[in-house]
Each structure stands twice: as structure tokens, then as C-alpha cells.
Amino acid sequence: VPRNYDPALHPFEVAREYTRALNATKLERVFAKPFLSSLDGHRDGVNCMAKHPKSLSTVLSGACDGEVKIWNLTKRQCIRTIQAHEGFVRGMCARFCGTSFFTVGDDKTVKQWKMESPEYGEEEEPIHTILGKTVYTGIDHHWKEPVFATCGHQVDIWDEQRTSPKCSLTWGFDSISSVKFNPIETYLLGSCASDRNIVLYDMRKSTPLKKVILNMRTNTLCWNPMEAFIFTAANEDYNLYTFDMRFLESPVMVHMDHVSAVLDVDYSPTGKEFVSASFDKSIRIFPVDKGHSREVYHTKRMQHVITVKWTSDNKYILCGSDEMNIRLWKANASEKLGVV
Asked: In which ranges do the WD repeats occur (predicted)?
């Protein structure tokens, strides 16, 4: 066999160079370490979480045994534990000023708690307790006024000073799983009912506005914090649907990739992406205008992910799952963070 020993004419030069170039572009992804830490301490599955509106390092979580924990993310430790409810903590939200937060549970109560820890010798007890007639499944606070909404058999709008709802909104008869205030047009709310509906309400008129019926039940929805009319719904049929409130006939985008029911969704503060949590033990990050996810996060130990939050500085993602852990991830997997 005649051989040419000139190295410039190597027969596999192109293939070799191509492989090298490909590896070089992949290296950032190869060395990406999206997982930062896990917050352990709950004694039951994490059912809901809430962000502090003023402090980036504070996050609240509620578990299935009625326990609420407040975490300091810089120290990665729990700074306060409250036995808030009998049975599940179904929902929680912080007040827009960050001085207090609300929880609802299976014991038919709505409780308002101080954000600060009690003084030495003080008892850990709520500021207010409202005893309702039915079990509440979710709660959300108005973004600018002392008003909050709970959902259960109907959507109730409450004034913080009163122990009975200002108004009750219904459309249909089924139980409502979650309710969310619009962060921009603050008097609008969206709710998801178990009869496969997504209903939009107007607080000023105290009437339902519009309704969209999907093929399967929607678990929760989240409003886009930058575009007032866009919201994304997490559905049982493994998909997420982004709707434009003005044209509810068909979704703007259907986001597919999960292989089981999607349980929670939260937008990034830029409004360009959102993160979804699913029963398939993973969380995925979707660009708003793409049908498929750009990122999927999971660990060996992570079980069904119930709740997920995107922190307000657009850097991290928190997810709470069945096996009692809250995990902290980078929103951009290969970003170099230095000292966190």
C-alpha cells in the first residue's frame, strides 16, 4: 500500500477537525452543573411555595403535614418553622409589602402570619384566622391592595380587614384548584376548575369574564409578568398551553415534552421563559415562543415535583417535590456563578 507521510494530507483530517469542533462547542454543556443545593427539613412532601416580594434570599414552603418553613437561601437553612394547619397546607402567598403571609389548609382556615420571627418568649401564632365553610385549595394576594382571593368551591375575594368575603365568583359548580391575580392588570384573576375550565374574572365588576374549556383538567396557571394578556396553563394531558386572553379560541403555543401530568408552572421575571414541574419527576424550562423545552432538570432522588418557583432575580429555580426536599437550580445551567 503506498502511503503518503505528509501530515497535511491526512485522510481523516476533515472528520477529525469536525469532531474536535463539535466537542469544543459542547464543552459548556458537558461541564454544566445546574444543581446547586437541596433544602432538607420537611417531614412530609412539599406541597406549595411562595416567594418573598422584597427579599431575594427568603422563600416560604408548606408541606403535607401542615408545616410551614421559612428558608434563608444564602445560608441554605431553615430560619423558622410553624405548625400552621391540620392536614395539608394547600396554598400560600406573601403580602405585596412582605410584612406578612397567608396560608390556607385542609382545616378550612385562612391564616395570616407575621414574616418576622416572634420575639423571645412570644408564642408562634397567626395575626388573623378566618374559619371558612369549605376547604380552600388555593390562595393568591393582590399585587397592590390589601385584597386576597381564595378558591375552593368558588372564588372568594376577601378584604384583609374582614372575616367574610367581599364577593364570591362562580361559573359552573366544580371545585377550583388554583387562582392567580394578574401582576399587571391587577384586578384580573384566572382560575382553574376541575371541570376542565379556565375561567377569567374581573374583580371590579365581580363577574366572570371568559371561559375556555380544554380536553383535560388544568392544574394551575401563571400570568406572564411582562405581557398582561398572556398566561400559561399546566394541563393533565402532559402539555402546557400559552393563551392570549383576547383570543381564547386557540392557544398561542402548545408546549410539549413532559411525559406525565404537569403540576405547576412559574414565569421568569423577564417574561421570556417559564419553568414547569411535572409528575414525571422532572422540571423543564420552556421559552415562551417555542413548543419544546430548552432544558430538563432531574436527579436520581427527585420524586413527583409538586411545586416550582423562579426567583425574582432571574438566576435560580426552586422546586419542591414529594420526597420532602426543596432543590435549588441554576436557571441557566452552564452559567458561571462564582461565589454564591
From this structure: 39-81, 255-296, 298-339
Phi, psi of 225 (to 5 degrees): -75, -5
CATH number at residue 314: 2.130.10.10
Q: Does residue 247 belong to any structural domain of this protein?
A: yes
Q: What is the pTM of this model?
A: 0.90
- For residues 207-223, one letter each, b for 16 or more C-beta atoms within 10 angstroms of the residue's C-beta and e for the rest, the string is ebeeebebeebbbbbbb
3-state secondary structure of 130: strand
How long is the chain? 340
* 184's grid cell: 399587571
Q: Which residue has the cell 402548545?
A: 254
Q: Say if 129 falls within a structural domain.
A: no
- Is residue 69 included in any domain, yes or no? no
Boundaries of domain holding 279? 222-334
Q: Report whether 112 contacts 101 (CB < 8 A).
A: yes
Give how far Cα 177 sits from Cα of 58, 251, 299, 305, 330, Å: 26, 21, 28, 17, 29
Contact 193, 213 (CB under 8 A): no
Dihedral sign, CA of 247, 249, 254, 259? Answer: positive
Per the structure, the count of domains in the chain is: 1
Distance CA 328, CA 124 (A): 28
Q: Provide the residue-wise pLDDT of the chain in tens; the chain has 340 residues.
A: 778 788 777 778 888 889 999 988 888 888 899 999 999 999 999 999 999 999 999 999 999 999 999 999 999 999 999 999 999 999 999 999 999 999 999 999 999 999 999 988 888 999 999 999 999 999 999 999 999 999 999 999 999 999 999 999 988 878 999 999 999 999 999 999 999 999 999 999 888 999 999 999 999 999 999 999 999 999 999 999 999 999 999 999 999 999 999 999 999 999 999 999 999 999 999 999 999 999 999 999 999 999 999 999 999 999 999 999 999 999 999 888 887 7
User: Taken in order 261, 278, 60, 83, is the CA torsion positive or negative?
Assistant: positive
